[in-house]
Amino acid sequence: MSETTLHDLSKLRAGDSIPALQIAPISRTTLALYAGASGDHNPIHIDIDFARSAGLDDVFAHGMLSAAYVGRLITEWAGHTRIRELAVRFVGITQVHDQPNLSGKVVERFESHGEERLRVEVQCANQKGEVKITGEAVVAVA
């Protein structure tokens, strides 16, 4: 996304939502591709036999895959040059076939280091509304 197509953040206030992001359901292909791209080949994420031997019904998504979707939510909205902080907390497991739905809400507008900023609470939930990741981003307004 070019800097000229970024959203205008100048009028946002506490309570305003940012544009949501819906990701296609997590497939086994998604997990295999992420494992290759990230170098995280933990079999709990890609080998159903291994997952079952660990007492699970199936493999599940890498936590950092969902965290990457949170990063995508913020960068598609504000752009990477405006990000000042991004923190996430893993609160649930994203299962195969879950559809990540990401959202955010401005909770504070403030100034820091001579720069106007927004603090945004973010979350990644599945299609049932079960929250998998919570977090917070701080972005520069300009």
UniProtKB/TrEMBL annotation:
Q: What is this protein called?
A: MaoC-like domain-containing protein
Residues in coiled coil: none
| Ranges where the MaoC-like domain occurs | 24-108
